[in-house]
Structure formats: C-alpha cells, structure tokens
C-alpha cells in the first residue's frame, strides 16, 4: 500500500463520528448481553487456544530484519505491528490430553515449514520477549522513531500498513508514544516503539459464560506468580540507554520490560487521563465485563459493516474491544453461533524460548482455572490491590519479587516454595480433572516447576550472561548482543523439541 493510500485510510478513520460509533457499540453490547443470558456463548466444555508472536532476524548477523509481506502470506503468518513481526494462532481445542497435544503439534506443524522457508532468505524467526539488536546499519532509536508526514498524516516508516496502527498517532487521544524505564528515555511520533516486544497469549474459553467473572477473578490472582516464572525481557537495545555506568544499568534492570513498554507507548503521558493498558478490575457479573469494554475510551472508531459472521451482529463492539488493552481481558466472539464463546485472554506473558515452554504456560494456566474455581480456593479473597502489586512486582523482579499468596488453609504466605508448590499441584489436579494422566499432566507442569525450583527464568539467564560479561569489562552493547546471539543459537536447537531448562 502506498503512503498516500495509507494516509487516505487514516483520514477516513479520523472523519468517523466517534459518538455515533460509541452509541452503536453500546446498542450491540445490550444485544450481546441478551445472547449471553440465553446461553448462546456457553460451551459444552473448557476450550483452549494460544497466540504466538515472533520477530525476524538476519540468520547470519542476528540483527533485526524486516520480513517481506509476501513471505508472511506464503508461510501463513499474520502481520503484527512492526515490519519485523509475525504472529500465528492455534485452532481452539478442548482442554484435554488430545487437545493440548494438538496445540503443541499445530505450533510445530506451522513453524517447521515457516522456519525452512524463511531460512532460504537468511531469515530466522525468533520467539523472545524483546529484540535487542537493531537492523544492520541502523540504530534502534532510528528504526523505532523513523516517520514521515504524508498528506498531513504522520506515518511510521517501519510499521505494518494496518491503518489502525497509524491512526493512533493521528487522533486526539493522548497516546504516550514514549518509553520510561531504568536508564531509558525514548520519545516517538508514533506507537512504533511497541514493536520492541513480543508475547504469547493463552486463551481459556469458559464452559458457562455467566461464570466468567469467577474465572476472571482467579486469573488476576495467578497473574503475578505466572509472570514471575515467564519474565524474558531484561534489556533494551543498547543505544536506547542513557549515558550511565554499565554496571549500574545492569544492576537496575527490570526483568520484564515488556510491561512498561506496552503501558508507556499506549497510555497517556498525563496522569489525569485514564490508562488504556492496565491491570483490569474484578467483575461482579458478566454484564459488568461487557460494560467495561463499552466504557473504555475509543481511540480509532471505524465505519464498519456487518458481514457474514455471527458476531458481526456486534461488529462495533468487537472493533472497540480491539483497543481494550488490559493485561487480562474478557473476549466475546465467534464466527458462527455454535462457535460463539466467552473466554479469558491472558496477555502478560512474553515470548518464550521454546514451543513446549509456551504450551506449558497454556496448560498450567488452564489447569489452575479449572481447579481454583472448582474448589473455591481461598486466594479468591485476596485483595485486588495485592494481586495488582504482585503483578507489577513480578514484572520488575521476576522470582525475586515479594509475592503474596493465600494458601488452601486460608493463610497468607510469601514463601516462594509454598506458593509454587500449591500452584503446580492445583495445575496438575486441574489437568487430571480434564482427563490427562498423571504423567501427561506432570509433563506440562515440569518445565515451569524446574524454573521455580532452580530460581531461574529466561530473563535471569539473560541477566546473568550480561552481568558476567560486564564484570569482565566487556562493553554493555557487546555484552547484550553476545547474550542475544547465544539465546538465538540455543533456541535454534530447542525451539521445536526442548525446553528452556535444557539450556542450563
């Protein structure tokens, strides 16, 4: 798409009547509530799915690389925000032994030919939390901040041609378009800095849609402990750091900078405006969850027409939901009436070192929701504020965070072994409840249990590598890039068949 065509699409979005759009979304939400009450969005069983984002690097140099759009189409991956991004989604499957096996096999079935095909163009697809090596001959600052003005519209040079991404920089909504982290300050004219980060997103479809608030409440309370296990983005591209001592930068690094990047880029810089990206509230009813989407400020209204999908009856509500950025969020959609579902989208987790690691998080999350809701686990009573504190502490310190949990006996604990002992036991029980054998359930739990037992995460592994190099007086940039090269090399050997703990 040419720059003038993209600018024209952005101006079309700018011309949409926001109030009229919001009215239609609110009207559709009322019809959605009726469908939920009538059972349309119920499932006969729990169902799981997974989104997996990757970024591309030059197979020889390890530097970030733009992926030709035609190549993405050829390998069947979807566009993401940056030209270097790619995304795939698994088909929803029942939460049972065969369904989880199908999830893992589908990821491998799609990644295997994709890796082979991109390899012909010297491109390597990487599963990670944040890229750190900019394209050859460019700085990360230039790559993230490069933009042009086309017919009065600000367009990011290295961003995909989806008009909604570019419209975010051309609306009245005060999107921050900046990053503020320890020793990092970056300001841009677009939301392109968000393309630093990549994630995995497990989905859990609720059997009985009106029960969503109960499942959601537990999802918020396991968010901190699961994020602490998954942290994988302790370092930025080196040229983004301010002029500071290398040792100080390493010592002050947060272990999951993906959280702050997403919030800083898309939230208003002014504290007087409500954040779009944030830890979500508890809901008293499924109607409250729908109302929360409706109440969220619309950034990019669009003139949309209903197509042939069942959920196109709620097409404005669905579009509005696309910018309802919460770290855990409720979703209501389905291409046909039998496929209509209410689900929880778990968004805190960064990209993981291997496929099996990603599926382990998916299985453990699903197993936890199954068990905690069925036994009415006492952690349900944990204050929302404490759950939120756990989440942000985990993003900064990983397994070193001061996490709080309420045990099956109703006692509060901060003992990490007790917390994860209960979590993994509950996850195993939940998977067995869904028909998995004990050995199969343990297979999914084991990669994460070993992280907890060894007190090691991908972010800690990265941090230790960089810290050791800096201690040897290796310049920070070389230390980070050396670590990243080692990460990619290890992943090449284990992405499809292995786990992160195989690296240790």
UniProtKB/TrEMBL annotation:
Pfam families, sorted: GCS2
GO terms of molecular function: ligase activity, forming carbon-nitrogen bonds
InterPro entries: GCL_type2/YbdK_subfam (IPR050141), GCS2 (IPR006336), Gln_synth/guanido_kin_cat_dom (IPR014746), UCP012666 (IPR016602)
Superkingdom: Archaea
Name of the protein this chain belongs to: Glutamate--cysteine ligase
Organism field: Halosimplex carlsbadense 2-9-1
């Amino acid at each position: 798409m040419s720059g003038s065509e993209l600018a024209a699409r952005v101006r079309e979005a700018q011309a949409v009547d926001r109030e009229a759009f919001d009215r239609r979304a609110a009207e559709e939400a009322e019809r959605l509530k009726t469908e939920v009450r009538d059972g349309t969005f119920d499932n006969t069983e729990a169902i799981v799915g997974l989104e997996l984002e990757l970024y591309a690097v030059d197979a020889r140099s390890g530097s970030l690389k733009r992926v030709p759009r035609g190549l993405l189409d050829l390998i069947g991956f979807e566009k993401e925000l940056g030209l270097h991004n790619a995304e795939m989604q698994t088909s929803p499957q029942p939460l049972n032994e065969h369904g989880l096996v199908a999830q893992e096999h589908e990821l491998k079935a799609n990644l295997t030919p994709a890796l082979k095909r991109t390899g012909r163009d010297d491109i390597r697809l990487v599963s990670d939390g944040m890229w750190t090596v900019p394209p050859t001959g460019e700085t990360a600052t230039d790559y993230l901040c490069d933009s042009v003005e086309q017919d009065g519209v600000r367009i990011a040079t290295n961003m995909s041609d989806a008009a909604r991404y570019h419209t975010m920089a051309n609306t009245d909504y005060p999107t921050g378009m900046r990053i503020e982290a320890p020793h990092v300050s970056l300001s841009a004219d677009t939301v392109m800095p968000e393309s630093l980060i990549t994630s995995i997103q497990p989905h859990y479809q609720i059997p009985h849609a009106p029960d969503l608030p109960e499942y959601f409440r537990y999802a918020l309370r396991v968010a901190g402990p699961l994020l602490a296990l998954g942290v994988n983005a302790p370092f930025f591209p080196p040229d983004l750091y301010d002029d500071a001592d290398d040792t100080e930068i390493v010592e002050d690094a947060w272990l999951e900078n993906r959280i702050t990047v997403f919030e800083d880029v898309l939230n208003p810089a002014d504290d007087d405006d409500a954040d779009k990206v944030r830890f979500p509230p508890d809901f008293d009813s499924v109607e409250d969850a729908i109302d929360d989407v409706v109440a969220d400020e619309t950034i990019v209204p669009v003139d949309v027409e209903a197509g042939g999908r069942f959920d196109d009856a709620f097409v404005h509500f669905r579009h509005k939901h696309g910018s309802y950025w919460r770290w855990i969020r409720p979703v209501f959609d389905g291409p046909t009436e039998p496929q209509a579902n209410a689900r929880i989208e778990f968004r805190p987790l960064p990209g993981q070192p291997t496929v099996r690691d990603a599926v382990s998080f998916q299985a453990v999350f699903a197993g936890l929701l199954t068990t905690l809701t069925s036994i009415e686990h006492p952690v349900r009573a944990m204050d929302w504020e404490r759950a939120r504190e756990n989440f942000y502490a985990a993003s900064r310190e990983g397994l070193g965070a001061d996490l709080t949990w309420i045990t099956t006996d109703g006692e509060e604990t901060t003992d990490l072994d007790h917390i994860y002992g209960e979590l993994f036991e509950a996850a195993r029980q939940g998977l067995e409840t869904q028909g998995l054998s004990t050995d199969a359930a343990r297979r999914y739990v084991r990669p994460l249990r070993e992280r907890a037992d060894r007190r090691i995460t991908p972010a800690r592994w990265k941090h230790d590598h960089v810290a050791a190099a800096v201690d040897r007086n290796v310049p920070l940039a070389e230390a980070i890039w050396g670590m990243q090269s080692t990460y990619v090399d290890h992943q090449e050997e284990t992405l499809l068949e292995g786990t992160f703990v195989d690296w240790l």
